[in-house]
Amino acid sequence: MHTLDVSNLHLEYGFKRVLWDTCLHCETGQVVGILGRNGGGKSCLMQVIYGGLRLKDQYVAIDGRVLLTRERRPEDMRYLLQQSFVLPGLSVKQVFDDFGVAFESFVEDFPDFVGTARKRMKTFSTGERRMIEVYAVLASDSKFCLLDEPFSFMMPLHVQKMKEVIRREKERKGIVITDHYFEDVIDISGELFILRSGKTWRVNGREDLELLGYIRNTDGIQDR
Hints:
By secondary structure, the chain is of the alpha/beta class.
């Protein structure tokens, strides 16, 4: 089993506290969900964990080994950016080869993509490109996987299948996920937090989210 520990994160922009003594723990076999309003610091938290954003005072460690630099080894951690990141001229197979993932395993989960190994990424829809990116990151060999808005632009059928992949992959790694499709995050997360006023607060489903003002009864997210 592997552990990821994050604590003592402080980030301010002007007078706004984005992260304030923020803490997080994840381990192999876990999906940790993070919810929060737009601009609440979720992506900043992911970037700090991955090393893309370096703070003056922070603690990020895997198995007790403090990660002191921006660099993260792929075997330790993979990060799905909120924005599309794969070069449009690459073929689907090239993308999966870069991540050490077999194209054949992808089409077993998503048969609609049979025969697309040589197709260029630019020929796919936004949702299809997102599926390929999420799968490449998620199915690669790593101790931990950070997923920032993985379900964006996906059709519901594909979201449900990707959730099955997440449940399968968590058996061999720890997964941290944030997405505004909060019901899907609740569904797959063993531990659920809301990032509010720079701090992570543990929540237990919809009732707590309503009390914290993240959702209004059953009407959905207030800031979507």
